[in-house]
Structures are given as structure tokens and as C-alpha cells.
Amino acid sequence: MQPSLVRMTVHFSLKLLVTVLFWHCTLSRADFSCRNEADEPVDWFIIYKLPKYRINYVGSGVDYMYLDSSVNDWKMSTFMVNLSQGAVGNTLSQLYARKTYESEDSVYALYNDAPPVLDYIKGYGHTKGALLLDHSQGFWLSHTVPRFPSFPERGYIYPPSGRVNGQTALCVTFRYKQFLTLVEQLSFLYPRIYNCSVPAAFSTDLPQLVQLCKGIKPSLTSDRNMQQLVSVGGEKFVHFVKSERYVDDIYTGWVAQVLKTDLLVESWQREGQLPSNCSLPKHTMNIKRIHLPTSVWFQSYHDHSKWCVSQRPEDQVICLGDLNRDRAQLWRSGGLTCSFNPLIYRAFRQVVDSYISC
Fold first, then answer.
1. Are the beta carbons of 266 and 353 closer than 8 angstroms?
2. Please, which residues bridge with residue 68 across strands?
């Protein structure tokens, strides 16, 4: 072999070794991120907590299905959502077990229109979630569970009120700069932040979060907004948010028309529910019954989750969010996080057993 070729081969081998070691170190770092069932960092995950009351039998109320990019379909978790193990518990333990909430090197916020322990107060957005980040990256957990998560000092507590109905949660890992956009979006939601910390080193970058932590409603230039959010792994989401000044059904009046697709919507069905709507070019139809891959069947009125999928498979739209199709919530702020990932779409579209046509 010629000397020059040997040098090139050695140089390439060293470069490859350095690259492999770099990525290994990157994946091994203790950056804040969504965590999977094995407590490993993941780009995103979704859980579907099953309702207690199903068709033909009563469940535990704390079992759930799990989905991330490493699995092809819903997987029944071996953990219960009321235990600190599992995806949600592992993710929030970065705030709880490490006592990160006492650190000046990170930001966190817990929000829920029905917070744990505290009394309900009108005026806040119908939205629930948590975020934790430092100057490198962090996670955003958006969910539908009232009175959750618990205050950091109390550790991980899943509320009894979250056992009866079905619930969903979406966790996404973002780089720091993406949180600047996300916090601007949260301004439209006006979440009830009941526990938070924004140290001085972050306050210039996150002025709206500082205001929200103080219960101050940031000024808005419009009544709604749409932004693209990109995860650490490059997964693209479109985030729709509306303030209370946009008085309309977010699914029918806005999202279906912008995405140009008919939507099947799963939301909590109680008194005041809006009927399926075919009055606009793109229609919105209420889901009636869910059938999960594990032969679990349940009616939509036992499901507190809020999500929608495109009726036509070729559109591949799936959104998870905050708002029910409910008359009272026309006047509430809230949002939807939409994906065009075929894996996520298939997982949700297949569970639609029946819906109510117009």
C-alpha cells in the first residue's frame, strides 16, 4: 500500500473513531430530556393512560400504552402511571429526585388550570404541562391530567382524580433556543403556572415566562399564533395556540382549515359538547368509540384526552392538545401540537373504532 494511502486510511479511521466517541459522549450526557421506560433519553414519547371504565369490564385506572420512535406501535407499559417508574415518572424525576428545582442553573415551570392542592381560579387557559431546561436543552411535557404534576418538594404523586378517565401526554426534547419560541407560544395560552423558577441568567431570554410565573398576562399582538417546533432529533411539529380573544372551536374554525383536512376529534364528551361540524370546507367529526390494540374498548365520554387525526390516511395529520370541543371552551385559550409523522398518525388512526358523521 502506498504511504499516502496509508496516511489517508489512518486519518479516516481516527476521524471515524473521534466521531463515534463524540456521539457516544453526547448521548451519555446528563442533559435534561424526555426519558423512556428504561430511563434512557429519547427525542419524544406519547402515553395513552387508559380509562378505568371500559366496555365490558373495569380496569385499574393507572395502566397505559407507550409510544416513541423506537417502537412500531402502541406498547402496553409494564409500569403504572401512579408509580415513579415509567416514562412520565422518569422524565419528571429530573426535577424531583435531583432537586433541580433548587438550582440556579436551570428553569422549570409546572402549569395546570386545575392545579394540585390549590383552589380553581377562573381566567387561565385550559392547558396543562411542565417544562425543565438549562442553557443546553430540556423537555416539554404537555398532558391532560388535572392536579398534576405535584409540587417538586412533595416528589412524584399521580392524583386519584386522574385515574377514572383516559388521559394523554406528549413529551418532546428541545434545544435551548427552541424554548424561546415555545415560551412565546405559552403567552397565548396564559397557563396557570403554580410553581416555577426562572433564575436571573435566563430572565433576559425568557421575559414572558418571568411574567407568567408572576401571574401577569403578557401583551399579545394577535388573538392566535402558529409556529413550527423542531425537536433535538429533528422531529417537526406545528404548534397552534389561541387566546381567549379567538372565540371559536380550534379544531373546526382553524386547524382543519389551515391543514386542509377533515378531522376526527377525541375530546371529553360532557354537557355542552359541540356536534360534528360540516359547515366549512373541511369537516370536524366527533369520535364515538376507541379500540386499542390490546383489545381495550371504551366510549369517548370516559376519555379526558384531547387529540385529533385526519380522516384520510394520505393526509397523515395527528394533533394532541388542550381543548375539548365544548361550547364553554370556545372562550378559553389552549393549543394543539400537530405532527405529520406516519408512525404517530398510524398509532392514533387505527384506534378510532367509530365516529359521528355530519
1. no
2. 45
Task: Compute the distance between CA of residue 70 and CA of residue 48 in angstroms, rounded to an integer.
Answer: 17
Give 26-42 pLDDT, tens digit per residue. 433 469 999 999 999 99
pLDDT for residue 7 is more than 70: no
Which sign, positive or negative, has the C-alpha torsion 34, 36, 42, 46?
A: negative
**Active-site residue, selected from the candidate residues 239, 283, 302, 304:** 304
Nearest to 250 by CA among 314, 320, 303, 187: 320
Question: Measured between alpha carbons, how far is 320 from 239 in angstroms, rounded to an integer?
Answer: 10
Hey, where are the domains in the chain?
Answer: 31-356
Q: How far is CA 169 from CA 18, 50, 189, 245, 271, in A?
A: 37, 12, 17, 26, 24
What is the C-alpha separation between 77 and 276, in angstroms, rounded? 33
Active site residue 135: no
Q: Is the pLDDT of residue 76 over 90?
A: yes
Helices (H) and strands (E) in the chain, counts: 7, 21
3-state secondary structure of 295: coil
299 sits in which H/E element: strand 296-299
| Three-state DSSP state, 309 | strand
Nearest partner of 338 among 352, 312, 315, 317, judged by Cα: 317
Question: What are the pLDDT digits (tens) for 155-184?
Answer: 999 999 999 999 999 999 999 999 999 999
Q: What pTM did the predictor assign? A: 0.91
